[in-house]
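Q: I'm writing up a methods section and want to include an example of the input and output format. Could you take the sequence below and give the corresponding predicted structure tokens, formatted cleanly so I can copy it straight into the document?
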Amino acid sequence: MKILHVVQGYAPALGGTEWLIQRVSEELVRQFGDEVTVFTTNAYSAEAFYSPRLPRLPVGWSELNGVRIRRFPVNSRLSQALRWPQALAHRLRLPGNEWLRALYGGPIIPGLAQAIAEQPADVVAASSFPLLHMFAALHGGQQAARPVVLHGGLHPDDVWGFNRPMIYAAIRQASAYIANTQYEADYVIARGADPARVTAIGVGVDVARYAALTPAEAKARLGLGDQPVVGFIGQQGRHKGLDTLLRAMRQVWQAVPEAQLVIAGARTLYSRFVDRDLASWPEAERRKVKLFYNFDEADKAALFRALDVFAYPSGYESFGIAYLEAWACGLPVIGCWRGAIPWVVASGRDGLLVQFQHDQQLAEAIVLLISNPAWRRKLGQTGYNKVIERYNWPEIARRFRAVYAKAQGAHGKGVAES
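A: Here is the clean output for your methods example:
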């Protein structure tokens, strides 16, 4: 099968969807011998879609692990110019404000839809609403009379991003839709998607890569000592709850003064707020926080293995691959009662859930897990078992391919709306 994946970023760009599509693409090549091409941007992160000064990757063709990659240049200056007009239009609920929001969020890629139409493919599959390349993929696929599979990754609690009728109109036109959770599947079905064309799949994790180091070895490698370590590893942004975690840790230290906090992930524009908050802390507290910005992917396993508790109090997740990575290390996780997260984390069985932006609840959950090592291990083991049974990459790729094959077989039989 010839498959064209369209996604906002691809390695070395970092992000949950970026990693998902990379692993699915590589598994399709490895398992089935499929010809997989990826159309993506030259951006390291979505911030570059509206920030012209951020660094870029080279434009053009390359290949990685059998997958052909074409990177397109992004017009971020136009997106930047729409920052205030889109905000005003959204606040006033002016007609067409959803398109202004879409243009601001980008990525604006002139000629992308035409390039998609001209690329030989049996199936066009695009990931990550509300970004503009999703609509380019749909239009390009329709222009070439090819089946189009959309993989949304919706965060419904993000009203600015996902309260857009254009998203759900596009989903209704697609040959098939892949949701990350049943929560997301039910959400799009309630907005008019055909249940027969919606499939909940999820994401995967490489369990073996986390087994090479023991927790003690990982802590020594990172210079963390043998004290309890709480960690946040992922994209840095306010919606991820990192500010809540910082406030919560100051309460945790009142009960467990020896605890340490690890914050790791690609540096973003939001990172300056983290730096500013930490700079206002007493030196004794700052020394308990270890920052690992822009870490090498090869170091991710050590970062997770060094933790005792994984705290990821995000408010917007379509799934939350970081929870799987923590479970692959046998860690208990802490998430929020928000969006799709309760469909991933079973509170009291493989982790704990707290209210979003409730630093006191988060602090209490962290202290509870640190103080109960036997229960901590039990929760982590249950999460590990869940990963082994449901969330391995070979199985995830097979599920994606099954959707692609069904869409290809049904194409031309009146399944998709015009």
